[in-house]
Amino acid sequence: MSIPDRIILTLYTILMAVVAIFLVLFSLGIISTSSVSIFAATVPGRWEYAIGGVILLLVSLRLLIAGLGGTGVSTLSIGNEKEGKIHVGKVAVEDYISEFSNDVFGVHNAKAVVKMADNLLNVRVNASIEPGINIPDTTDEIKQIVKKNVLATIGIEVKDVEVFFKHIKPKG
Question: Which of 106, 102, 90 is nearest to 156 (CA)?
């Protein structure tokens, strides 16, 4: 589940807790029926409540879609051996590539994103590079290391490696 979905889920959970507390207080008679009737009488014609209802509906639909999306753990199928299929977590591969990309001299804060297509891996490495480092040479080094290490460790050929340097700044 992505971070925005987690934030939405947290806010939604808090809202549902407030509604649950309200229902408990109402059912125990702590909040009177007349108070609820007075509040309900103010709802028609108030655009604020309509907007709140639409937002609540959209949040509910978003959480439903996110919930039906699966476990949130994305895997890459890397083979179909006689004993069964082999799966590797997508995040595991991305973390692995990020680690050895950060080991390249002058490169830091590397993060990798991988996509699988036709049993070939496409990799994008987003990183920062220190001033004075030759960008074309460093890019070629990252590409060669990614292709070599992924093939040796995971057994998948890397089709394309895209390197994007978002910052040129000292490590720190």
Answer: 90
Q: Which long-range contacts (CB under 8 A, 24 or more apart) does 105-114 make?
A: 105/133, 105/138, 106/130, 106/132, 106/133, 106/138, 107/133, 107/138, 107/142, 108/171, 109/167, 112/146, 114/76, 114/90
| CATH class name, domain 75-168 | alpha beta
Q: Quote the CA–CA distance of 114 and 88 in Å, as a whole number.
A: 12
Asked whether 127 and 97 are in contact (CB, 8 A), the reply is no
- Output the six-digit token pair for 75: 């895997």
Extents of the domains making up the chain = 3-68, 75-168
pLDDT per residue over 17-35, tens digit each? 888 898 898 888 888 888 8
d(CA 103, CA 92): 17
The strand ranges marked E within the chain are: 75-81, 84-89, 107-117, 120-129, 157-168
| Spatial separation of the C-alpha atoms in residues 21 and 83, rounded to whole Å | 53
Per-residue model confidence as pLDDT tens digits over 95-151: 999 999 999 999 999 999 999 888 889 999 999 999 999 999 999 999 999 999 999
**At 56, which helix (H) or strand (E)?**
helix 47-68
